[in-house]
Amino acid sequence: MKKNIYKSLNSFLREKYGQKVWKVPVNAEFTCPNRDGKRGTGGCIYCNNESFSGAETGSIREQVKSRVEKLKKRGINKYIVYFQSYTNTYASVDELKMVIDEAVFDDGAVALHIGTRPDEIDEEKAELLAEYNKKIDVTVELGLQSAHDNTLLLINRGHTKEEFDQAFRILKKHGLDVCVHIIFGLPEESREDMVETVKYVSSLKADSVKFHHLHVVKDTKLFEMYENGEVELLTEEKYMKILAEALTILPEDTVVSRLIGDAAGYTLVAPKWPKSKSEFLLKLERYMNEHGMYQGSANQ
Ligand code: SF4
User: How far is the CA of 147 from the centre of ligand 1 (A)?
Assistant: First the structure.
């Protein structure tokens, strides 16, 4: 049988739930401690949440109901409730519980994915999520982006690698799945830096990983830097090659939840590749096949 080049989220979900499972993005209107002054101001230099919120409007319950009705019309009955925008554990434990209970209300919800920052994870919050994890599969999506403190400082992440490490370990101690977000092409990072980040995440044995290429979107500090010629973006070819190398380093059983970034067209300034995601994935597969590469192959 032909070996899969990587362990995709779709195949993992199909295997686990026996059918197609879709994500239902929810905007709970949390804010971010890296914007409101608790941790920092201005946010990460690339952040414009308008560029990635795909949620419906209305109350949390309405957002989920509206999207689920659409899915049902397409014959999709199982879904993942996905708290995507901003920092979705930036609240008290009681508030978090209220928000989650509003979003998770029927048997179609098989999993709960919560995007957040390392500095908004603590024992109490992890305990709460672990309670939900007894009833529904919980994954915490934790932004790392780079394992290099100098880069984290440069992109104004407002946390260190050490803080990420601590949050990761708290979540794992409570039996929660963790999906780590990584960005390739951050300012001043070399190929070796990116590879080191992947090696670090691989050493943690993260349950899943999301890879993104750096996007310049409107109304961000990165946009200003780009306009001033201070940022050099990766070409599609370079990104593909780094991604291929990263996949060979990842443990075979880590789920690859994303291979490329995604930004809403009207906010995106650069880069304008790929023209088509499916073509990019085909190119990646072809390249990896030609070079005998597959997920985990560097660890054999
Ligand atoms: S990317 Fe996330 S952590 Fe950074 S400013 Fe935006 S919402 Fe906050």
Answer: 17
Task: Tell me the CA–centroid distance for residue 277 and ligand 1, in Å.
Answer: 24
Task: Please answer whether residues 112 and 104 qualify as being in contact, where contact means their C-beta atoms are separated by less than 8 angstroms.
Answer: yes
Cα(212)–Cα(261) distance, rounded to whole angstroms?
4
User: Which atom number of ligand 1 is nearest to the Cα of residue 156?
Assistant: 4
Per the CB < 8 A criterion, the answer to whether 89 and 121 are in contact is: yes
Strands (E), 92-199: 109-116, 137-145, 177-184
Looking at ligand 1, which residue's alpha carbon is closest to its atom 1?
47
Query: Is residue 25 classed exposed, middle or buried when 0-12, 13-18 and 19+ CB atoms within 10 A define those classes?
Result: buried
CB 32 within 8 A of CB 90: yes
The rounded distance, in Å, linking the Cα atoms of 242 and 246 is: 6
| CB 125 less than 6 A from any atom of ligand 1 | no
| Length reported for the chain | 300
List, for residues 158-198, the tens digit of each pLDDT value: 999 999 999 999 999 999 999 999 999 999 999 999 999 99
DSSP 107: T
Give the model confidence (pLDDT) of 108-146 as tens digits. 999 999 999 999 999 999 999 999 999 999 999 999 999
Nearest to 118 by CA among 30, 29, 33: 33
